[in-house]
Amino acid sequence: MSRWHVFGVRPGGACPTLLPAFEEPTLLVFPATAEGEALCGAIAAASGAAMLGRIASLAREGHALVASRTTHGGRIAVRLRVAEGLAVAVVNDMPDLDGAIALGAPAEPAPERIARADQRVALESARIVLGGGRGLDEAGFALLERIAEALGGAVGASLPAVDLGLAPVSQQVGQSGKFVTPALYFAVGMSGTPQHLAGIGSATRLIALNSDPAAAIFRVAEAGAAADARTLLPLVLRAVEAGLAA
Predict the structure, then answer these.
(1) Of all helices (H) and strands (E), which one includes residue 180?
(2) What CA–CA distance (Å, rounded) separates 185 from 236?
(3) Average pLDDT per run of 10 along the chain, which is 246 residues long?
């Protein structure tokens, strides 16, 4: 059996039908961005490739390729072994590559508004994450976005908040969403369900803001405030902006 080849993929207005033919076992790795994840899923669906998901490490064992990843909030390690064919994966840091490819035609120049959005910190790599729950409204999430932008962080959301349309699914953190490992996670308007906490690394420092002093989130947070987010978030934003201006 031929050895595996690992190629990094550069998204560029790609179309899955433009995927080249690979004669030997091949792994395509995509960057951990919204565009990279979407393209990875599209390629897997169009080609029938083995979907490895977001992997943490990669190794060759004989004629097989072995990838590792974690689940359930980093508590369970999983090894995925692929012996042949085509496989796809998403990575935060690119492994040693045999080459790089670009899929599809170059994308048209993006409007200025979109270009600024692309420069935001990726949720998975952010050092500070502000997570919003169903205890917030649209104005509350808008404040989280402003605070996150000022701090160089990112905004996450609970499943109920996503279901209510307060945040896109790309921002969902939890067992059925993304796994984040920031230095600081500021949970606002969240009850603190195990399903959501499973998406936060065990080494992350958690601060909570909830109007219910009996909320479960306070049992796992290092610090917290039982207060109305509509009152406190504007004060937080004002303090952050004042600190940056000093």
Answers:
(1) none
(2) 15
(3) 75 56 82 78 83 85 85 72 89 80 55 46 92 95 95 94 91 90 95 92 93 94 94 94 83
Which residue, 237, 240, 236, 200, is CA-closest to 220? 200
Dihedral sign for Cα 77, 49, 32, 170, please: negative
CA 172 to chain centre: 8
Contact 153, 121 (CB under 8 A): yes
Class of domain 121-245: alpha beta
User: What tokens appear for 56 in the block?
Assistant: 């943490």
| pLDDT for residue 65 | 87
**Which residues have C-beta within 8 Å of that of residue 32, sequence separation ≥ 6?**
54, 90, 91, 92, 122, 124, 125
Q: Tell me the CATH architecture of domain 5-103.
A: 3-Layer(aba) Sandwich (3.40)
